[in-house]
Design brief:
Layout (H helix, E strand, L loop, with lengths): L1 H34 L2 H36 L8 H7 L3 H48 L2 E4 L9 E4 L9
Antiparallel strand pairs: 1-2
Helix pairs in contact: 1-2, 1-4, 3-4
């Protein structure tokens, strides 16, 4: 059992490190979104995807370790939580390490959630600005020309483009 707890602590520490890296990337993303640098955003997104893939691999590994612990403890793996596991641990050192990792990962995930929400709002603002600009350009499609070819009458033109290629 002690080996499984050590494995769980190790996986959780690695996951925490991944989440910390994602948090740093999210901070960079905020700066990039504010600057409007789409090239840097694409590069950062690639790096983020790599980190997320690593995190998913660690989650699978953690699930396997938890399955093994649940089997040893004769517990349902779906209801086994770190808090329940902490209650059952006899080794004080393991309990403290697991509790510290639990607290750290919880704090990092809260920060990451908050920053991701902020970035989502920034992205939505950027999309809204792009939509506004496109609508402003498209609303100028209808214009009046100074071409008096039809008996001195002003002509209205509804073109498909903002630019009049005939002039």
């Amino acid at each position: 059992m002690a080996g499984l707890i050590q494995d769980l602590i190790q996986v959780l520490e690695e996951e925490t490190l991944c989440y910390k890296n994602l948090l740093e990337l999210s901070k960079e993303k905020t700066d990039i979104l504010v600057a409007g640098d789409t090239v840097a955003l694409q590069e950062l997104t690639k790096t983020e995807q790599t980190m997320v893939a690593k995190t998913l691999r660690l989650e699978k590994k953690r699930d396997q370790v938890i399955d093994d612990i649940a089997l040893v403890l004769n517990e349902d793996k779906n209801s086994l939580t770190i808090s329940k596991l902490l209650e059952r641990l006899k080794n004080e050192e393991e309990r403290e390490r697991l509790k510290a990792v639990q607290s750290e990962i919880k704090n990092v995930l809260e920060d990451l959630k908050r920053l991701n929400e902020q970035n989502r709002l920034l992205l939505n603002q950027s999309i809204d600005m792009i939509d506004f600009t496109l609508n402003a350009i498209q609303s100028t499609r209808s214009f009046t020309t100074n071409d008096y070819s039809q008996g001195g009458q002003m002509q209205s033109t509804n073109g498909r483009s903002f630019f009049d290629a005939r002039q």
